[in-house]
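Milestone M4 deliverable, item 7.
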Amino acid sequence: MKSIHQATSLEHISYSMKRLRILYTRKISKGTFAGDISHIGGVNGGELLEKYGVELFPDLPEVRFYNQKDISGFTTDNFEFETEIKSGFSHGKAACQRVDIYLQGKEVILILPISRPECVGELFLAAFGVGVSSQSEDLSGFGSDLNDWVTVKVTCIDKQISFFTNDKLTFETEIPNNPVDIVGVQYRFEDPGAI
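Output delivered:
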């Protein structure tokens, strides 16, 4: 399996993300404060692979986009995350168009899976201390047509976390762990996706 790192021999590839929006909320004496970060850039995995001469066949490379940094004040108990993803490639091992979005906390992780509707039977959702499999819970709402842009949103208020796909509530639960800082976001595509 090739990764961009192996295929291009670059030390690492990091991009700012246009369609990435992270908001955080904090209770203060007179209402709520919202801060917005990472509103810049946008990237298409197909264009990136073409730029570096990475072939899609016979061995389709996995594509990962990430933004890692210490983001002071963004914690796992109160935040809003919204992004758009797309995958117009559905051949071979990428037939399910699987995308995993990671929000990385200092000691815990959120893994939000999206795939084609017919492939939701193999999904696993992790939410900062909660783990749920599609074999035991209904995660069918995480199935979407990824040939079109899909809007994904996660809101968390006082440890009550809700997941939305194209503005439809898909799943909700309570986070059991103590809050920690969110330190990064990562997108993992089985194919050349776009954000």
